[in-house]
TrEMBL record:
GO terms for molecular function: arylsulfatase activity; metal ion binding. This is Arylsulfatase. Its EC number is 3.1.6.1. Keywords: Calcium, Hydrolase, Metal-binding, Signal. Belongs to the sulfatase family. Residues 1-36 form the signal peptide.
Amino acid sequence: MQVQLTQTQWIVMHRFMFTLVAAWIAAASSASSVRADDRPKQPNVVLIYTDDLGWQDIKCYDIDEPCPYDTPNLDAFAKKGVMFWQAYSPAPTCSPSRCAVISGVHPARAQKTHVVGGHPPHPHSINSSMMDPWYSGRMPEDTFTLAKAMKANGYTTGHVGKWHIAINHNAFPQPMDVGFDFTRSDRGAHQNVKDRLSGFATSAEDDAYRLDENGYPFHQNNADALQFLNQFKDKPFFLYYCTWLVHSPIITRNEALLNKYAERMGVDPAKTPSKEVPGQRNPFYGAMVESLDYYVGQVFHYLDSTEDPRWPGRQLSENTYVIFTSDNGGMEGGPTERYTDNNPLDRGKISAKEGGTRVPLFIAGPGIPAGVESDVMVNGLDFYPTILSLVGAERPTDKILDGCDMTPLLKSDPTNPALIKHADGSVRDTMAWHFPHGVALESTIRVGDFKLIRNYDHVGKPGTPNLELFQLYKTVDGTQQRVDIEEANNLAAAMPKKTQAMNQKLTEMLSEMNASYPAYNPNTKSELPGKQQVPTITEVEERNGIVRVEIQDNGASVQQVHLIYTLNGNDRYEEWFQISMQSAGADKFAISLPEGTTHYFINLIDENQFLVSYPSLKKLKGGQKSYTPHALTVTP
């Protein structure tokens, strides 16, 4: 007789088997620690930050539909430490998550909530009902970064791969501007190709991507990581290894892998599924995931097989903490093509729903138990304080760190949520995300088992609810049972008190971080409440470095007036900043221009959250390269 297991029974059995398989690793680790008195006091740290890798893209995270991607190295590594089922990225897109990890500061607090940024606010089109707020193009210049902190504690610091902490990959600041001693950014085998059905790597000696003995193309991105490890293995090191995989372009130079997944998925590589077709059925993406697994596996192998010069007779991995995760949820597809599927999670990258922020996370190293699976809620913001704690470095006293130190959790009981505490000793049970951009325009908060989504564009889109409440889990006697991680059952109407309480908590958290909010477009054709009362900027005068503004009151009071300015108008990396103007009397505001300002705009926001720009940018569309032709020019 065939026995059908319920989903909960299957997960329990899966985790039980996972623990048994890993038991010998824990025993071996315990035995070797007996002779660890001569361990170097400064352990190494490797943070592997992958790009767009989804929660369901690794085999060992399978919970519903079978994952078609082979990830043997990551599956094996998961058994060497703690595997987190409820790990989150700081943001649903890459740049703000990367800034948050390196700075330790929440994207809302840093005003770095999306990619690019650093430009004047304007609607995506004249008919858009809302527009993004101004947000920074980069990490704040004076940030005491994780790299600086590690360097101050005697570490050699290295960055390899994707950077994306500025408005452009090549703009300021670069890795060496923020504390890294070593940096390489080559895309390696993931360089784009004109025709992805040709140009595959071969065994020819003159092939820049020559296949290795295992049939994988040479990948400079990974070679750079191995070079750093080899070059600095005799010193305490911190490696921030950022893979370009598995971000688009969706290509592979490994023809054998492509054919393997095409056959497995029953898909012709010339006819990959459209974005409307669900499932993990893109053979190019499958080849990319397995390639990522292979290259990262080479790093694991190097650490496991290389003797530690500071600890003769031991391997580097015995005194190295390794963190593996992703910068955001999986990108499910592009304009015409399905890449992957985060099912059962809803949506993916560029959404604050679970599919956009829940990510894989493994952490292993000295003192961390092997083969443990944890349901504790953690975040990429936790890496900064955790890494400092793991290596014995003091936490900066004059700096806000929005994450928690995971060390007590990792080294005591990785399954106990009471061990995740804020700096003041209070247990953390709440996280918030702020993504006031594009098609999302939302903020979210998770408190324990429940998650609330606040949709800002609910007025211009009547079918979109203002607030959505979901119960992801039900905790019974300390054990979480899966309820609605799909975010399919909106409980806002059924649980109004909890909905309002969580919404108020979200407001308090965003207010404390001085978050910026999306604004209504006064030029939209849509009928929006308060559109007829929007104030008018009647005069802007600049004299002797001081800008004065006069405003006409049309019924709605002015809440904020900002100077949006640039110091490098018409530059290739033109970047705009925002500062508040001060009241100079009734309906008048003034400010001294920051030194070096070349061009500027005036923005005002009224009590109904309408934003007025002077000069107007109502006819511009997204993706503008330069705003200086539309701006006011500073008088010489």
